[in-house]
User: Fold this.
Amino acid sequence: MADLAMLVANIAARAATATDRGRVADYIPELAKVSAGHFGIAVVTAAGEEFAAGDADMRFSIQSVSKVFALVEASCRHGDAVWTMVGREPSGSAFNSIIQLELEGGRPRNPFINAGAIAVCDLIAQGKDSAEAIAAIMARIRDLAGDDSIDIDPAVAWSESVTGFRNAALANYMRSFGVIAGPVDATLSVYFQQCAIAMSCRQLARAGRFLALGGVAPDTGLPVISAERTRRINALMLTCGHYDASGDFAFRVGLPAKSGVGGGILAIAPGRASIAVWSPGLSPQGNSLLGTRALEQLAQATGWSVFNPDV
Amino acid sequence: MADLAMLVANIAARAATATDRGRVADYIPELAKVSAGHFGIAVVTAAGEEFAAGDADMRFSIQSVSKVFALVEASCRHGDAVWTMVGREPSGSAFNSIIQLELEGGRPRNPFINAGAIAVCDLIAQGKDSAEAIAAIMARIRDLAGDDSIDIDPAVAWSESVTGFRNAALANYMRSFGVIAGPVDATLSVYFQQCAIAMSCRQLARAGRFLALGGVAPDTGLPVISAERTRRINALMLTCGHYDASGDFAFRVGLPAKSGVGGGILAIAPGRASIAVWSPGLSPQGNSLLGTRALEQLAQATGWSVFNPDV
Amino acid sequence: MADLAMLVANIAARAATATDRGRVADYIPELAKVSAGHFGIAVVTAAGEEFAAGDADMRFSIQSVSKVFALVEASCRHGDAVWTMVGREPSGSAFNSIIQLELEGGRPRNPFINAGAIAVCDLIAQGKDSAEAIAAIMARIRDLAGDDSIDIDPAVAWSESVTGFRNAALANYMRSFGVIAGPVDATLSVYFQQCAIAMSCRQLARAGRFLALGGVAPDTGLPVISAERTRRINALMLTCGHYDASGDFAFRVGLPAKSGVGGGILAIAPGRASIAVWSPGLSPQGNSLLGTRALEQLAQATGWSVFNPDV
Amino acid sequence: MADLAMLVANIAARAATATDRGRVADYIPELAKVSAGHFGIAVVTAAGEEFAAGDADMRFSIQSVSKVFALVEASCRHGDAVWTMVGREPSGSAFNSIIQLELEGGRPRNPFINAGAIAVCDLIAQGKDSAEAIAAIMARIRDLAGDDSIDIDPAVAWSESVTGFRNAALANYMRSFGVIAGPVDATLSVYFQQCAIAMSCRQLARAGRFLALGGVAPDTGLPVISAERTRRINALMLTCGHYDASGDFAFRVGLPAKSGVGGGILAIAPGRASIAVWSPGLSPQGNSLLGTRALEQLAQATGWSVFNPDV
Assistant:
């Protein structure tokens, strides 16, 4: 594992000198304030060893990476009933597109595009006030990461809510079809807060480790979710985790992963490791440019692609 | 491996008694003639052991499964230049949809939807007559399967060509954008013949084995294509191999696979096995109903899902 | 004009016995309460003669017919600046479709689909509270109809607002592009109230008479809007007044007209008459079935189609 | 009518000095050869007086203006059966869009977009060879114009056919749904030849005169088509005659009219006149820029808008 330490360090060193760093998201003023100069990486192996470099302990807005944890929470509460409200197909569209909702009767394609994640928030909040729902998501993440200091960045949450008109459009649209059942504002409140969770790469990689372990919590040895559900969440991350660049990410990196417009990506190498990278500059499709490149280098060097025959 | 023999036999036995068998494709008269009662399965392990059951040696029209081999042929000839003409994203649409072609400037989303496969045929035929192109695809498949008896079913090829108006629309549309360069009729001729290749499950599983071996031909030990390209083709099969049910297939089965409307599916368990199943009844999305179910049972029992941690 | 009285009576008599009466709108509970048995017609000639029959004096929810008067109000306030926010092309889509908004950068196609009418409400409300805006629209309609008793049906307005999720989606979507500038809730409040205006056929025909007179108010002889703007509003009514059945209405009736899901239609025969019909049963496209048929009979009998050569 | 002569001369004079002349169509090489400097106008009144100016006697490729005459021919042969194959709604899309065909089961929206016109050609050719069909369309136009010298420009027809891949896509797509029944190539041959008809403004205005006369042929006094069908064709020209700028043309000009990418427009003022203008430079929507402007000036000066109250 000396190699892994060196590899992680090398990747961070290369990222530090990269000149083409993508564009920092500016659709939320709070996100636009972050410098494109940052890069962090943290690898937590299945066995629990940690390797980190760069800004691995600096907290950033995890944004859509939170959708993985919300799906876990919704699955624990509702099991397969999640899939009556949300599909599991790649969308072939931008993350915030509303066209498919109209063509497909208000049902979002998967839980990792905005519409689907809002529907998941609604499922979690069902019949309760939104405060309980976001508290449950936070408790889940803190528990998985083993770190109670993880919290919502209130400035980002506020920024999301006052500029979130497209998300409000998606929520109202789904509400008109009964795909979301609760009050639109309450559901959106959960969603906006969830997007505003701030975590470091190290915290994120720790929180995702159970996904590399067939759903088993490393500290207790007890299942967070079943092995089958874990495989399925990994499958969804591979096919839908990078919006309309999911196919390209699978092609280049070959790992289940979920990106966020804050520049973070959580990637899972089943049986091997949980990996988090962060660099705020984005590709045109809204995924971290240097983060994707780092994961490509890591997968290439380690042979962790799920498509690798291991022969 | 005694277990695998029994498992394959059990799967075939269960399929034999299934009552909900899907609908046999009827858009081509020749395909509609096949009985929904058939079911075949063949597993060829990485090491070369073979396990087969049911109608594993009966030949059927492989249809879109041929797109995998055409992509291999095009990659050998043109390398990464393939990706200038064809994308690698799931389409989020039906296999024969033309909408995205208009929205995206005539460029097909991936090589496994009809438009993309036609563009791949055009690449192979480039600058030569179509006879040479289809001969090259046939030679490739015969070589990979180690079986010179594999051939095109002329009745199916004819049936395809006289009813192939939607494919002709796709080809003409791409031609108007210069995405295909050759004469439309010649390109379509390659495509229609390729779709009409007849193979058995056993032949198909043998032909796909190199994809489970990192691209290495099992008989010679020489690479058919590089390990990296092999991973990438497997990734494409996982994200795009089942049209607009690719996400669901990844969710349920977790293996790279390509289906055809003849009812065949070729699935790859990297490092483990190449698997072919066949049952002519289709799901509404155009994928073999019993074939998918059989692969789900196989993946479950063997733990071959690429999302399995192996811990 | 004895003929016109008899014609109007005949049309009403025929409508009274019609068996195929369409479906009463049920997307708002208040609208669903109205009986499909009603039919009213009122013709006010350019010279001011009135001919009415059936339920011509029963008030109904004018719904989208109000969009004509809101456009007049917005034109008076903002002139051609209206067209920077709203297009003037038929949509080729359903009245509440959101697809084109995404494909066309949030700009609604015309002021007579829901999105466009909401944008018009926002223009009227600009920089003021919504109460002033709806008051201005009401004052305009009362003035044009010469009838201060015209009012909003509060039960319908409430029903609109608690079920108006698709309209809320449209408004939020446009807000995200800056096409509407004011607070979404305030703008929607204007829109929902405007849709809930209750008028009789007679009141509606009187209120529309200036559109048959080149924009001149019949009582004062003063222009409400210029002759050119009047022609243009008539043109918009012809090309966009019946949602995605506008072409068919022009084909069959040949008059500028605007329909509402309450079953009302206001039609203008330039230089001849203002006509209002009402029957709550709708066609699948959301236009009054008997109302359309009545206008077809009237246009046929009078020769008032704008496409009539008068030779 | 001295005024009309002067008006026409003034309009031509203004057009001659215009600097912003639009872009000559270049998608067919033959069309691209025409100079943007041309402008012609011809007005033939209902009574038969003719007023012409500029290049009114220079022949140009009438392109889509031919769709009006093909619709007349199909209506004479098939009556209302035309409307089982073709709709009569504005498309809300570009002239050569294929998206709506997929969303609406292969049925074109109206006879004036490419798909609809191809379906009309197929109806005319039904059960006969394409030579008869194009001969019938030519005979119809020559008869209406009273001019046997009108002919197809073979270079343009050839140019259309060798570059017409998008039209071939539309035809094949409709053929797959049975919307066109004949051999695709034969149907396209009729369409390409029809588009390549060369006429002058004067010939075109003469040929359209019956549409201003309720369908009556001016020379014989006999109906070419019924008064009702004439009104309906005029309605279609108003709602669908300028592709996705039809609403704007109705808004600005207020006359039924059909444009072609050769730069010609045929406009009808029912009961007043048939008007043809020509200038090869196009707007982004594919309609003659100076031609549209000329018709706007003419309609403004004469008051011929169908939305004019004549009070």
Remarks:
- Chain B has a mean pLDDT of 95.
- The CA atoms of residues 30 and 117 of chain B lie 21 Å apart.
- Residues 2-17 of chain B form the longest helix (16 residues).
